[in-house]
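We modelled the chain as a single entity of 434 amino acids. Its sequence is:
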Amino acid sequence: MILGITVTVFDSSMSNVALPAISASLGIPASQTVWVVLAYSLTVVGCMLPLAAVAERVGFRPMFGVGMGIFLLASLSSASSSTMTQLVLSRVGQGLGAAMLMCLFGGIVRNIYPMNRLSAGIGLNAFVVGIMAVLGPTLGALLLQWFAWPAIFLINIPLGLISYLGLRTLPDIPRRSGAFDWTACALSAALFALALFGLETIGRDFVLAALCLGIATVIAWILVRRSWGQPAPVVPVDLLRIRSIGYAVMASAFFFAAQMAAFVALPFYFKAAYGASYAQVGLYLGVWAVGGALMAPVSAYAAARFPVANLCAMGAVVMMFGLTGVLLAPPDNALVWLLICMFCGGIGFGFFQTPNNRAMLGGTPRHRSGAAGGMQATTRVFGQGVGTACVGVAFQLSVAHGAAFGVGVAAFFALAALAVNIIRHFDPTPDARF
């Protein structure tokens, strides 16, 4: 499972680094290379919930095996692409394989660890994601220094092949039976793909974005009406009716929007405001990730002993202060100040993740763990898409101050996550535990 997490995080982080090299090699405008990332993210966010429903019927092991196979074949196809069309189609294949893997991780953790050790499992996952998020761009830059851009896709193949050695150790949950709602699957895929595409394009083509978001809203209404009375719907409205899970999903969406808005805006802000080099930008972002990784085991320990709302609120406050501190950094001695603020941002992010994910997964009946894993991953990816889109709008509103506005947007999303947890703290409904 750890290797599965590694290849999906590596791929999503390294591909961004390679966009200039891909543009030069294939002879395409830089503006078109966004589809290398967009094709992957749209496929992932559109497919995760339907694939989570499929996983509950076919089992975790077959889904992992097939998903990794598709991901590796698509990685090989991406590496051998000679045209933009082939590369984009290959990235769609990678997104499909990644969605088949990512929808499983939460459910696997839920079934591997007993409730009293669930926080430790979630903390380990958060630690791995934090470390891989740092190593991904660094490894991508090193590979591009020594090799051509196909190397960033070829590196997935040995890691993926090794992961097959642990396939038999994955838990195999009792499989659901009964009719499968293919209509809901199609509606779910269209809903999230249209919503994310609309958010991604809102800064470039407002009319198209508004049309996509309007259609997505109508589909969402139809889908909720269709799923409301079902015992195990594709879109897990049955889980969202559990108050603790609903709060966790809402807080997670805001918090991942804050994280991605920060990671998109901060490199531009550091270069514009302080003339930071690429090495310094990497140092600042690396300090954030290190803070998050170091806090993962601490938050895992605390999550089993203290109220989730209190821990998540503390994480949101620390992250919000870290982001605000970046905007208020003094001109003299900015390096130390920025390092401290970025470390605080990472600490806040790490302190939030594990307790909130524990509330989401621990409040889910074991037989719905597949749906919970898909919901967790979809919330994360969709929240990150919202954060990215909002930073894009900030740059459209002001070229000169767009980066600072983007960091402010990230702080606002952290404030929204704090508000959700304040409401959760005063809600008398106890957290569900299964």
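As a brief sanity check on the tokenised model: The domain at 236-427 is CATH 1.20.1250.20 (Growth Hormone; Chain: A;). The longest helix spans residues 243-274.
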